User: Which sequence fits this backbone?
């Protein structure tokens, strides 16, 4: 046993403890045939990233589960790693090059990739270091990266396998295109934002000169790519126009008026301009009517196609085109509107629908099994309501665009033959066309969507497609912990990828947590200036305080608000535990925490409460109710152990009976060791530091067995009796506090109850903790209760002589003076609230505050009058 410093300093403890865990290889997962495996793969943070509160929240939940299962006897693997983050990383490196006056094209692909790898080597481990600061107990020996050789092999195998099955194809379709990132995006990577806009009503003249047809559009510049105007075949307004030709304003192109159900008779004018290359619905109309395709935007969002506006930015061109429509008489009206605009999830610029040759995954066949495993309960969502979100998306999923116009990422393993046009897709780089054997082949320049590689994460990181011992033992994984905002990006893709490649789901449970918001409930962001850096919180309060703050406020699936003040409260909790531990150690002479044969009433009470805590915490953790479990541990440590049991132990600790002294030491130590184990997954640093200072066997607390319920430690009758005594003590103390009676002023206490035995066994505690001179337990009321203060609980009525508590005359004077002051304040409030100028002109919040002050004063006056009445 070693002495703990007087003050707990997380800066002195946390780095030292983490190094000790690393030195002892405590995090490493071994394949053990005698143990059940428990596996979590970390949602891989971006290699560009640094720890934010969302990461801290997600990783703390995982660490709690892993530490709990590790202590519960499982062979636990928490597999760490990070994602290459194709778009984000390439943007970072291109920014660096721009500052040097260069572009990636100046370097060429190979040298640019050398720059990216160098950037990754310099900055990539930053978030890993920060995760260690948080206390994450990952198996760092198994750390993976989505671009490492193991993951790259899995990516290539998956692409080739799906291509050979006809589930990957290349075709020209409408995709989401980000002109800022200059790459395609999948549907899940587009965020829709409501923006102010306009409907521009435009006249398209009929070729025969008989008039015009009116369309309304929110994107007037796209008329350059129009191939037709569509009307509903049932719309009586346009029946005579179907089959006719109209003239495209400003362009002069002749385009047909076609009948198609896509045209909504109740929306706008009922006539819809059809731009097949720039709208997914229009693309389908164009396919049905065999319409030509006119691409009018390039990859950077500039006009292209041989028009006078070529080279202009799309929004500058919009202004110019609208102005010219107005000048030439085609613009009929402008109608303000609000509409949802697709934006890039990375850069938040507006996305353009664009017809493009891209690679796609055919989703319908893959979605079937991924839907079944959730519907049949093989994969469960916690909370269950998120399974509906998942199923809704999967049942309506469209083919996944997986090609990205980047250089950083997994380059698509496809080679084009310049002689015969055949596409060779291969697991190893070919030297010739597999069809005509020509050597004149070139590789596809596009890379795969970042999510293509992270979709394989649960099994690629364990060595698949090779049949490795780790894959055999640790797969499938157990729990996937993530936020609800990533269900489509990642969770769904992991499930269908695993069902296809591994023929089984990648995990049995998806634990969904909410987002961390600021105290006003707003989403945190750098731009809003309301973000909180978790490293700052750790520097100020310690990692344990941050972790416990996050977990105690957590309810699966629900957002939570982050209050910095709660970090301070959790640091105070850590100090409370530290001081309690120091108290126990300063009074400790026994060598271990074996329970004594003789247990006093308070011992049996605290052991019963501890045993109930063991059972309840396990039940909560097994149901993923981490916040509830943490709160129960907090309440037991603060209230039951520190505020009550330690106080109850002092008479024996400081008494002359050596046997009794040793007995209470053993119970104090037994309970302390148990609560350190229970708390460890949540606050690993302080619990490990205290445990290392106590008498113990073994190398680390984190490798000790998690406490289990023990029927032998149940004393329900004794515990219930002692709770009655505690209720009586609390009630008496509360009444004395209300009357401002100091603890030094003791009184006689009469307890009237039909539970005499229970209260008689607790008279010593009542005398000490309820500040009683004597305690008399009786079944009948006193002959007279005049001049008595009464206190009532569920099981007893208690009486104390008023004169022994207070000097009645002085107390009457004090209360009278306080009453007069309160009445003056109330008169002032009444005057203010009777002033109609104030009530009508002051802000509502100010008026409500004044009304609240009045209500509080009225309640205070009622209480003071009641107190005077009782002074008899």
Assistant:
């Amino acid at each position: 046993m070693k002495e703990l410093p007087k003050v707990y300093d997380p800066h002195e403890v946390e780095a030292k403890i983490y190094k000790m865990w690393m030195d002892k290889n405590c995090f490493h997962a071994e394949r053990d045939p005698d143990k059940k495996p428990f596996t979590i793969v970390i949602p891989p943070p971006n290699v560009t990233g640094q720890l934010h509160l969302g990461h801290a929240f997600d990783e703390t939940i995982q660490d709690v589960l892993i530490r709990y299962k590790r202590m519960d006897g499982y062979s636990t693997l928490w597999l760490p790693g990070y994602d290459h983050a194709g778009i984000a990383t390439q943007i970072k490196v291109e920014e660096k090059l721009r500052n040097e006056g260069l572009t990636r094209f100046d370097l060429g692909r190979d040298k640019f990739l050398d720059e990216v790898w160098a950037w990754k080597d310099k900055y990539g481990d930053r978030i890993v270091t920060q995760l260690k600061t948080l206390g994450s107990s990952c198996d760092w020996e198994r750390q993976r990266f989505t671009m490492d050789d193991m993951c790259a092999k899995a990516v290539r195998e998956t692409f080739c396998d799906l291509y050979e099955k006809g589930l990957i194809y290349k075709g020209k379709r409408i995709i989401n295109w980000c002109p800022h990132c200059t790459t395609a995006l999948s549907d899940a990577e587009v965020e829709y934002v409501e923006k102010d806009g306009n409907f521009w009503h435009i006249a398209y003249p009929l070729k025969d000169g008989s008039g015009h047809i009116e369309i309304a559009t929110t994107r007037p510049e796209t008329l350059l790519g129009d191939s037709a105007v569509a009307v509903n075949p049932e719309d009586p307004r346009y029946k005579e126009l179907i089959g006719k030709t109209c003239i495209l304003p400003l362009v002069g192109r002749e385009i047909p008026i076609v009948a198609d159900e896509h045209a909504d008779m109740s929306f706008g004018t009922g006539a819809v301009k059809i731009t097949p290359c720039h709208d997914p619905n229009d693309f389908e109309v164009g396919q049905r009517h065999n319409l030509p395709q006119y691409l009018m935007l390039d990859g950077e969002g500039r006009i292209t196609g041989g028009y006078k506006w070529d080279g202009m930015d799309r929004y500058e061109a919009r202004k110019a085109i609208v102005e010219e429509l107005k000048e030439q008489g085609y613009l009929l009206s402008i109608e303000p509107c609000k509409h949802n605009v697709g934006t890039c999830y990375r850069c938040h610029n507006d996305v353009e629908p664009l017809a493009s040759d891209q690679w796609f995954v055919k989703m319908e066949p893959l979605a079937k099994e991924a839907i079944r495993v959730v519907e049949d309960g093989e994969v469960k969502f916690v909370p269950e309501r998120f399974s509906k979100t998942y199923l809704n998306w999967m049942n309506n999923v469209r083919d996944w665009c997986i090609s990205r116009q980047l250089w950083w990422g997994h380059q698509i393993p496809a080679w084009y033959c310049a002689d015969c046009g055949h596409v060779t897709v291969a697991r190893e780089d070919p030297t010739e066309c597999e069809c005509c054997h020509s050597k004149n082949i070139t590789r596809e320049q596009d890379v795969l969507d970042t999510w293509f590689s992270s979709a394989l994460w649960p099994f690629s990181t364990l060595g698949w497609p090779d049949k490795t011992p780790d894959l055999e033992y640790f797969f499938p994984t157990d729990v996937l912990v993530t936020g609800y905002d990533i269900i489509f990006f990642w969770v769904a893709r992991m499930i269908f990828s695993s069902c296809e490649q591994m023929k089984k789901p990648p995990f049995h449970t998806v634990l969904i947590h909410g987002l961390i918001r600021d105290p006003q409930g707003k989403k945190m962001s750098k731009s809003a200036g309301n973000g909180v850096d978790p490293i700052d919180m750790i520097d100020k309060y310690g990692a344990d305080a941050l972790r416990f703050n996050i977990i105690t406020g957590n309810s699966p699936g629900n957002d939570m608000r982050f209050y910095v003040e709660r970090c301070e409260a959790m640091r105070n909790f850590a100090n409370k535990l530290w001081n309690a531990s120091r108290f126990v150690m300063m009074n400790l002479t026994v060598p271990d925490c074996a329970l004594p044969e003789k247990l006093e009433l308070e011992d049996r009470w605290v052991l019963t409460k501890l045993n109930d805590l063991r059972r309840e915490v396990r039940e909560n953790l097994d149901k993923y109710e981490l916040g509830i479990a943490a709160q129960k541990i907090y309440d037991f440590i603060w209230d039951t152990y520190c505020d009550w049991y330690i106080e109850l132990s002092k008479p024996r600790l400081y008494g002359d009976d050596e046997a009794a002294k040793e007995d209470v030491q053993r119970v104090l130590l037994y309970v302390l060791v148990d609560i350190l184990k229970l708390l460890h997954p949540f606050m690993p640093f302080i619990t490990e530091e205290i445990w290392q200072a106590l008498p113990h066997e073994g190398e680390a607390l984190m490798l000790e067995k998690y406490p289990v319920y023990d029927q032998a430690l149940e004393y329900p009758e004794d515990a219930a009796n002692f709770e009655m005594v505690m209720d009586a003590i609390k009630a008496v103390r509360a009444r004395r506090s209300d009357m401002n009676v100091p603890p030094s002023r003791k009184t006689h206490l009469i307890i009237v109850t039909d539970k005499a035995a229970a209260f008689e066994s607790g008279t010593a505690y009542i005398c000490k903790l309820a500040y009683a001179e004597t305690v008399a337990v009786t079944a009948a009321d006193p002959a007279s209760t005049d001049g008595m203060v009464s206190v009532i609980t569920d099981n007893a009525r208690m009486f104390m002589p008023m004169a022994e508590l207070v000097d009645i005359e002085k107390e009457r004077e004090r209360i009278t003076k306080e009453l007069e002051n309160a009445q003056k304040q109330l008169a002032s409030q009444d005057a203010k609230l009777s002033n109609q100028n104030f009530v009508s002109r002051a802000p509502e919040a100010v008026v409500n505050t004044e009304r609240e002050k009045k209500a509080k004063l009225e309640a205070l006056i009622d209480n003071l009058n009641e107190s005077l009445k009782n002074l008899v």
